[in-house]
């Protein structure tokens, strides 16, 4: 097990009291806190500059969200392990976290001991989600992502446009294909995603609910 003093950490949250509390707890427990940020841009700069062992990030921050920070940092091939600390429990956020292959996702209601457990977990190359998350939600999110990954590149392209609320005729015009081809793709997508096709807007509604994950395809 790596000594705490050798675990370098960057933290980011736009709530000053939460940021200070997290900073003080980490230092009191001998972690090497390299820096703290009050917005996403500062967080990204700290991560790219210091390449910390761990980055603890809020989601809702000015300039860049926690998810945007992680996506941009990963594109730069940093070795940092990313843990989200958020109030958000909704499946949409879980889906985004899983799509970005984030190492850990905790809730701000979790104790500091749970944060420490999560840090050790991700350092062992495991994925850690808060115990507060409903197990069935995690399973549902994982299954949805697996289904999306089975789509062809053409189907993914059309799904992105559907998520933007574009009609079949608008999609056909943009992609220079026939409406019939678009409808065939839509039918295949519905089948692969196992969407209950009870209404004409079934795929549009599904895509809208998952739009933040779909845009990462």
Automatic annotation (TrEMBL):
Tell me where in this chain the Response regulatory domain is found. 8-123
Task: Please indicate which superkingdom the organism of origin belongs to.
Answer: Bacteria
Keywords carried by this UniProt record: DNA-binding, Phosphoprotein, Transcription, Transcription regulation
Q: Which InterPro entries match?
A: CheY-like_superfamily (IPR011006), NreC/VraR/RcsB-like_REC (IPR058245), Sig_transdc_resp-reg_C-effctor (IPR016032), Sig_transdc_resp-reg_receiver (IPR001789), Tscrpt_reg_LuxR_C (IPR000792), WalR-like (IPR039420)
4-aspartylphosphate: modified positions? 58
| SUPFAM superfamilies to which the protein is assigned, alphabetical | C-terminal effector domain of the bipartite response regulators, CheY-like
Q: Name one Pfam family in it.
A: Response_reg
> Which biological process, per GO, is one annotated for this protein?
phosphorelay signal transduction system
Under the GO molecular function aspect, what terms does this record hold? DNA binding
Q: Where is the HTH luxR-type domain?
A: 144-211
DNA damage found in the keyword field = no
Under PANTHER family, the record lists:
NITRATE_NITRITE RESPONSE REGULATOR PROTEIN NARP (PTHR43214:SF41), TWO-COMPONENT RESPONSE REGULATOR (PTHR43214)
Protein name (record): Regulator
Q: Which organism is it from?
A: Aequorivita aquimaris
